[in-house]
Amino acid sequence: MPEEFLQYIWQNRLFTTNQLQTVEGDRLEIIDQGRKNTNSGPDFFNAKIKLNETTWAGNIEIHKAASDWHKHDHTNNKAYDNVILHVVETADTSIARSNGEIVPTLILSYPEQLKHNYQNLINAQTWIACENQFHKIDPILLQLGFNRLMIDRLETKTQAIVELLEQNNNNWEETFFQLLARMFGFKVNAVPFELLAKSLSIKTLLKHKNSLFQLEALLFGNSGLLNQQLLGDEYYLRLRDEYSFLYKKYNLKGIEGHLWKFMRLRPPNFPTIRISQLAALIYQSEGLFSKIMDIESTEKLKQLFKVKASEYWDTHYNFNKASKNTQAKELGDTAAHILIINVIVPFLFVYGEKQNKPHLKNRALGFLENLPAESNSVISKWAKLGVQARSAFDSQALLQLKNYYCESKKCLNCQLGVKLVSSI
Predict the structure, then answer these.
(1) How far apart are CA 363 and CA 371, in angstroms?
(2) Cβ proximity of 307 and 331 under 8 Å
(3) Looking at the structure, do residues 323 and 194 belong to the same domain, yes or no?
(4) Where among 93, 110, 127 does a domain terminate?
(5) What range does the domain containing 46 cover?
């Protein structure tokens, strides 16, 4: 069995404890199995055992085979000198500390059923490892785990924001703009949108916040989408002329137009439409960053994102090619929800953490509870298993469970997996 499984058995004290004896023949009592170490060094620290009549306090190291101690070169590592017990599945050799002292070894014994339960999960080929056993799990257990899963997901997202913030020398406004722009590309055009935002400072854009036309000229110009041809319709040529002036004024350097993806996208999601909507958001929202920090309700946030592409795009999806249908290209509710869930919530959470404003962190979680659950294939499959997401808070937790735990079969780190493995 993998070391991870043996560590799980040890951590949860599922091993046989009656009449324990070390390989060396000493009577053994486990007073405290210690606390799992998530950093480098021995697997468990602050353990306490009794060997014969002597009580020892120190660390525990766990291996599949005792010889792994030598493979990992622990003998010459003084960090392992305070190991008081070596716990193994197979005792194929004796091991010692750097000073030559023998480390007591225990062969771990546990119910065979636990191994069988674990192997059933790891070898499963279903959508999630426990799919065929899911009916055995109390739904309340899953609901109780949502909070931890949500914090897990936020920590993953916020780490990326923290790294971006460091790249921007702790400029919150620039970092927020780059994150927002990336999400305007959703999955397909996230990267070119992020590159566009990094090529064009929000400070430059805000100098032209009173002119939607100039904002579009800057964004479309730096996107590379105005370099496609020399000729075009009137609006296209006006944008090119305006960008030519602004390009020289700010010494701009744009990105390549070929980075943008149009194929397999519904026309309302074309990057041309999204860029125009981003320009409209900057144009319509005075002090966007500070406004986001002040808004307390999801309804007001959704209203903030009620923006539409400029009039030219009422009759176009691409430059220089009019469409048959005429309609305003407004950012819909679903898109607004995605932006709130993936931009506003994690950013507000980080800002609240860094600025020591816990009410902002609570507000971020409140936004998730007040938004409807997301609709996608993962959430639909959870529903088939009887798990209903009541809000975006729940759907985000379920996405984290599937993507982080189930995909990697981290069953021993999951409350549901632990429950199934431990059942006898």
Answers:
(1) 12
(2) yes
(3) yes
(4) 110
(5) 3-110
